Amino acid sequence: MAEKLLVAGVDVGSATAKAVVMDRHGHVRGSSLLPSTPNLSAVGREALNAALAEAGAEAGELAAVAGTGYGRAALDFAALRITEITCHARGASVLFPGTALVVDVGGQDSKAIRMGPSGEVQDFTMNDKCAAGTGRFLAVMAGILGTGLEGLGLAGLTARRPLTMTSTCTVFAESEVISLISRGEAVPDIAHAVHQALAQRLAGMVRMVGAETPAVFSGGGALNPDLVDCLQSLLGLVFQIPERPQLTGAIGAAHLALRKAEA
Amino acid sequence: MGRTAYLQGQKAAGRKVAAVWPARYPAELLWAHGVCPAEVWDPPAGQALAGAHLQSYVCGIVRQGLELLLSGGLTTADILLFPHTCDSIQNLGSLVRDLVHEPRPCLYFYPPRSGRSERAAVYLEAQLRTLSADLTRIAGPLRDGALEGALALGNGRAAALRHMYDLRARGALDASNEEFYGAVRTCEYLWPEDAVLHLEAFMKTHAGRPRRGVPLVLSGVLPAPSDLAQRLDGLSVAVVEDDLLACGRRFARALLPEPGDPWRAMAARLLALPPCSTAGDSVEDRASFLAEQVERTGGRGVLVLALKFCEPELFQIPSLVDAMRGRGIPVLAVETELGNSAPAGMMTRVEAFLESLP
Amino acid sequence: MTLGMELRYRWMKDVALPVLLKARERNRRKGSIGESPLGPPLESTRSLKRLMTRHYALARYAEGARPVAWVTSGAPVELLRAFGCYSVYPENHAALCGARRMGPEICTRAEEAGFSRDLCSYARVDLGHALSGLTPVGRLPRPDVLFCTNNICQTILYWFKELSHREGIPLVLFDTPFISVGEGTPEVFDYVAGQIKDAVPALERITGREFREDRFHEVLRSSIRASALWGEVLATMRHRPAPMTVFDAFVHLAPVVSLRGLPSCERYYEGLLAELQERVSRDVAAVPGERHRLMWDNIAIWFALAPLSRLFAEHGCAGVAGTYPNAWAETNHYLDLADPFGSLAKTYALIFLNRGLDYRLGLMEAMGRDYQVDGLVLHSARSCKPYSVGQYDLRRSLAGRLGIKSVVLEGDMTDFRTWSEEQARTRLTAFFESLDG
Q: Do β-strands B79-83 and B106-109 pair in parallel, antiparallel, or remain unpaired?
């Protein structure tokens, strides 16, 4: 096999498109992260090209490309199409060998995945359609509170007064947040309550598959320190967080492409 | 004294404690066996533990009750009793025993749905005897006269509640909605004699001129969200009656003649409770009961608190609303969730409803 | 019931409809199926369509000619048949509306009348139909009686009470106490049997017809046989490769639900069973290259039946067992002509949905072994609390007992507004990926 062998993983989600170019040793040589567009195939290719550029390589050099994420079916240039469940599990165990649990909070979906000793998926669960359990939910709340998505996580960390939110659906949660605002509650306290509510839903999902360690938190949600804190204390465990948590699925996809190229 | 401290006191006095899920069950039988029921309606609880067992479309009463159980909030209970109130509580009761493997005894009670018939009474009586056999194993046998004594306790508590509801309806109680429902809901865990003492003391303290406000009749499951009663106080609403499942739908509105046999009497008492969606009663009976409340108390309208995901109630609400309107009674139904705060949108609708009253 | 109505009904049943339906079929038998990962379709499907189309078409002419009853899926219909009632199953009708993707449209009509979107979608379809007349089958006949048993859920009781209230139609109810623990007590069976006995004079009054015991026995015999045949049909899926799938079972269960006790129902299953046995003898696979054998829990997702069936097959997965289709083969062996009322009480009070989850777990475990299942797909139906609440723990327990993996699909029987096609596909594909290891 050529020493120069390169593969790629492309993860097209509802909010962002990610791509990773990987060499035969499993090292990431280039990556990208772009906002998603309705043209899934085009944004997937764009992400791949950006990752290739960073790696200083060209599309012709790729021995295999694996597509994943909600837009995977549209990625006509990918020889392999694998669900984000399998890819997140793989990505997490590539980054942190021995990982037994992955929690992923993406834009459209959140999931909890339990893995076996060699990183294979043993059980998983995802949020249901109407539940307030996703990154989108955080974006909506950040919009109402006017903090921006990044500010929401930081605001929550400075909460002083515990508030409770109990709503199980986004519509109710929205009106609950509006009520808290109109009652004059402080933004950090509300932000923390939002994270606590989401963390409770995530904890339920984790317990459904079994709370095991070592555990990894992936996806954009992992960038929210208050959310991670809330979930850690609810579950009584500590998450490892990838340097760029949104890339976990693309890394897993690239790794699966590598396995295929080597086969 | 808090609820947990009180129940610990009951145990210290030699009684057993039963955690009881909603809604209608033979409390007298438990008392007769020296068991103090402590009801689990809307405990403050998160959902991190229950979420692993229940889908997000399951009602708050079931979710929060399970959360409380799993988080160790029911350690004072010696027994768990699940009345068969709806499909969700049915499965909760089964889940707790069969799949979560709760080590304490789980007991079940099925209120018949076949109307208030002789067959229902016979079946109820048989069931009460079976339940009593179970309780005997856990809490010891019935002493002589225990059933008659418990029936008398039940009458005493119902009489105190009737008195208190009556004072409120006649405008002879100086109590806010929040205070009133706080007092009524102590019946969910107080031993009946203590409950009567508590209610009587409450009536004494709050005797006097009524709060002025718009007289409304409440319907639904619970005076919830928990700050709802307080919010209604803020809007100058004076609740004058209710057919809330947790409150006014759980005691007979008149002292009825009963069969001499205590088992039959206990069955008859359950069948004499006000009309209820969970008992399979018709919406017409329910509407007549509410309309009578409105007329007797001079209520200016009915506020229906529809609890999200509560099937028995949600099925009846459209026809109940129609039936009220058909009788010329203003009515508003709002969807509520258990939890800490009544949402602003809901309160706006209530305010607009009050403004629209003739 | 006039003689004219009666003659019109008989003419439609015996002469006109058979001719019309044959003609319609001839017109439709065009166009190829295209490339499919599935094995050859069942020949019997054609007779099934004929049978069910005739049932719905004839229903229109039954009004006025026969007493019409609207019946719940778990009700002792045998008693009604002894009065010659024409039976319509709102649940079956709702499933049909679901399969034709009319769920949300009809549900909306009920929601506009104030029924919450959180209520059972079968009920919303039925109430929406009552309010708007919307249906894919032309028209349902107005019932003379509502015939309801709450052994499947309490929902059905609230729903039928509501129909009764709105339409002013008498309701005959059989209250079957939930059996949380054990096998049921004599008190329970006496209570239920007593109600069934009480229904006899009530039905005599409502239908204006006399109860005929000989006819009743004949119907019971036929019902026992139909259920036994249905049990044998399902049992053919124990064979590797399975000659049909659970998705086929969902389609072919319509007669045993809604025509049980009628000769046409028996005849239908005789034919289906013969076809399946012949397939078994030749090892004809419903899913060519069958690699995994799966159990389906809960009612079908009617609007997605075909795509799901295809997706399973694309991954070499055959659904070979289902708790739901099995329900109509589960308890009919209790029926006993020597004690018709007592045995009807047992038959209908002991169905798995009326028993504790421990019983259901045992049932699923046994099915898992009998059908050599290596995976479990649970449809968490938002509409159906008694079926769905507890599924998360059932799957955990079954994983331990059978050592199988499972996946939960959040869905509904008819209301696809709560369904995410994309997410379901992802969940299933990931599950299939994990089965392949």
A: parallel
